[in-house]
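Example 3.2
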Amino acid sequence: MQELNKYLLSMAYSRSDKAILSTLVYADIFKFPLSQEELWDFLIINRKIERVLFEQDLKKLCKQAIIYHESGFYCLKGQEKNIAKRKANLLEVKRKLLLAKKAAYYLSYIPTVYFIGISGGLAIGNVEKKDDIDLFIIAKKKTLFITRLWILALLELLHMRRKRYAGKDSASDKICVNLLVDETSLGWPKNKQDIYIAHEIMQLKPLFERKGMYRKFLSANQWTKSFLLHSKPHLVLYKWSNNYQTVKCISIILALPPLELLVRAFQKKLIRRHQTNESVSNKALAFHPRDYRKETLGLLQRDLKRLGVLTNI
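Structure, written as tokens:
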């Protein structure tokens, strides 16, 4: 790897070269090789380049032995073992996707749930057997905590809930709702608009929506295009309308302010007992005990500098 670093530092990169290498550096932080289509979709670039130029430069970097290519996957030279790892995990990814779809189907019956998406490693297909399943959920306004209560209760009934102190073995295949926001808090704050969050947003796999919430969410986060210009929306698996009278009635009851206030006070009290890096407000709940965002951005800057790829990421 040291010889490769010295060679890279002596080279002059084109804009396309920098974009390809930056994208693979980011992917290699997660030990995750990319297919050509994934590399194009998540290319770290904010100005349009032609697909033909991208493919030409990709072939050139492979010939120069800067990039390694095998079985349709690309990674930086020296990270070849990650290709075999990804191929070995393909069946596990399919199995966990089926579990996520099952959970989303049942959670969609909660009328105050407006969007369910797979986030984290499973969203891009980077999971192992021991891993849990992360979901990102958008709730009806002013129902964040009552919605969370129903979500946790339903997951408990389905024996799919990830418990707070679950070990790696018991966390496998369990559902972790690590980010829950209400419909009035869709846009990310400016101080967190970076490549890590852009990736998390654009790699979401939408499973369910009401009221076109997925499109609204992406619209509120157009800033992602300044990092991932080529990324496109995904197809939503399940869509429900609010035309059913029963759903409307239950939704109105769950949205009663006194009920939300009562459940909010109770849940906040429980959360504070074990709170570490979790972020808790009346409009958003983020359960990330470990700050992967800060860690990832630090590693990205370090590796880009080491390879001589100077960017504005």
